[in-house]
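Minimal example, chain plus beta-D-galactopyranuronic acid.
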Amino acid sequence: MRYCSLFICIIFALGTMNAQFVANYDESKVPEFDLPDPLTTFAKKEVQTSASWNKLRRPELISFFETDVYGKVPGKIDANSFKVLEERNSALGDRAKRKQVKVTLTKNGKTLSFTMLLYLPKQIALNGLFLGYNFHGNHTVTDDPEIIISKAWSLNNESIGITNNTLTEANRGKRSSRWAIAKMIEAGYGLATIYYGEIDPDKNDFTDGIHPLFYAEDQKRPAKDEWGSIGAWAWALSRAMDYLEEDTETTQKPVVVFGHSRLGKAALWAGATDTRFSGVISNDSGCGGAALSKRRFGETVARINESFPYWFSGNFKKFNNAEEHLPVDQHELLALIAPRPLYVASAREDEWADPRGEFLSSYYASPVYELFGKKGISSNQMPNVNSPIFNTVSYHVRTGKHDVTAYDWEQYIKWALMHFN
Ligand code: GTR
């Protein structure tokens, strides 16, 4: 009898846990909160110069985001190697050159490889590159028949023909609407893209992907202050950058790291930690990305940690339903990108990602840009839809849903041409 009622209690508790979460979409119900000042250190010292930002504040913020949010990378790789798998001087109607490069990382005698697809302008000089992950394989970004299909595990997605967690010919070109490659090439920009599942499959499993390369004997998962999947995806963007620095065609060119949604979270963290990235674009990155956590609008810390327990460090769970105890917020992640150009974009109907929280985060990051003499977002009034603000910190909220659209890329390309040429 006792066991029976215990059982009923457990079932009831599990039931209420699932039923409990109701996202807040009502601005009047956003809690009062104190936003930490990016220009005051944890020891309450005021930061008045860019030099003391770099010396005192930036390192302590990086360290907090490392140990308590995304997790630390547990070491350095022992070796990397690059192999051009395929190269063609004429692609995309002779406007571009194509390259597919295999990057192999070695640690503790184990290896992991990923393939980067590159399109570079053929008829005009290369101004710079956009580097970003794709969700469903390099072969989905355009219908080019030569793009190699990844053998890595994929989330299923029936709308683009992915079943059995396997990428196939049926998915080729099915995400081309998210990649304005022709427009990039026309503007003198190249694209470097990687399937994120080759770094770490997007599932709650730490036996696959990059993590096991760093394990001590008998270790089964990262320690609490070590990287989850977002940390791994962000880190591998830097490993892709290692290649772009070496390739004679791309070396010395500005590389803008781009990401949508969960991959926008990874792009921001990569941009914050690796100053070799000249600029960063966050497209609808939401909770754990550009949006302020303390607003608890749409997706919350508890909710994201419950749905995706493997994305962040174990330590981040301390802040489930306790955002008020976070000594940082995401505007400080954005500030870590200063003084380099940053573009934060939202979509009007993407309330789950809290467009207003993404905008305010950009606004509250701006004093750090101003310390460097750069213009951030100077008003806390959100702009109208489809009315971008173009400063060193840029922002737009467009009409429509959670997605990457031609409109988004038009603005990113315009912004890149303003800042890097
Ligand atoms: C959602 C998640 C968001 C965002 C999104 C995506 O399910 O709650 O934080 O990352 O997925 O990546 O599309």
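Residues 56-420 form a domain with the Rossmann fold fold (CATH 3.40.50.1820). The longest helix spans residues 50-70.
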